[in-house]
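Protein folding task:
====================
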Amino acid sequence: MMRDGYVARWQGREYQASPDGDDIRLYQPEPGEGFEEVRAGRYVRVLPASEVEDLAYVRTTCTWQGQPFIVLGEHDAWLRVEYTGGRWPVAQAMRLEVFDFGVYQGWAPAAEVTDLREQRV
């Protein structure tokens, strides 16, 4: 599973999370005590940040064609990647899309990606 976002540990379990001021929103795909359905297959529980054991940002990184990337998502045998090398000539040579100023993204065949690893930021 490719992850790029906040995670929180509460009562010994890790959840997808979203900080919201002094609160943390926890998300899970199934119903649970204190969780409210926000849409099909998505339940949320809001807790004071002080009740959360740990909060971290997790992202998946990789190497593609010898260059560093963050993995943003996956679809079939492809990974949506964002170049983190910061060099326009490299991004241009790789035919990456200019997503924003200095931000270059593209679709990489999953079979060509190496060094997949999850990092806590």
Remarks:
- The chain is about 5% helix and 65% strand.
- The first helix runs from residue 88 to 93.
- The chain has two domains: 5-52, 58-120.
- The chain has a mean pLDDT of 94.
